[in-house]
Amino acid sequence: MKAYVKAGIKGFSGKLDGAIYYYHPKLKRTLMRSAPKMPIQPQNHAYRDISRQIKAINPSEAYRNDFRMYLGSLMERDDSIRLPSWYSLYIKMLWAMQARYPQQVNLKTITREQIIEQNLPCRSVKAAVEDGLLPQIPGSQYLDREI
Fold it and tell me: What is the pTM of this model?
């Protein structure tokens, strides 16, 4: 696939010369990363399955907005935070939750119903902050919309 210019966007996206180009609207820049060169291995399939399971949770829009507000506040307080979107922080929180509760949480099989039934700390931003999965910031106690 060749790189191409999209109308109305100051940049181009696609693959060219072993690199992948894409426009990031929040940073207002075209970013480039090298194309992966590793062969497909069994753990690639495991991560693919985990990613699909996490995507299937499909959090509510209110939950997403809470994460967006939390990330905005977090980035204002700490310039070293370089997360591009709420979803990156959400994924990071889920992996931290699996590391903390390996007996209860398996990201290969996690579902929205399991999160609600087991009252897992990822059910809201407030609960994740109280459990220590996310850093404490002022105002996080008001971000209590559930997944």
Answer: 0.74
- Supply the DSSP symbol for 133: S
Residue ranges of the domains in the chain?
4-34, 42-142
User: pLDDT per position in the chain (147 positions), as tens?
Assistant: 555 555 555 666 777 778 888 888 778 788 888 887 778 888 889 999 999 999 999 999 999 999 999 999 999 988 888 888 899 999 999 999 999 999 999 999 999 999 999 999 999 999 999 999 999 999 888 988 998
Q: Are 120 and 114 in contact (CB under 8 A)?
A: yes
Distance CA 98, CA 118 (A): 14
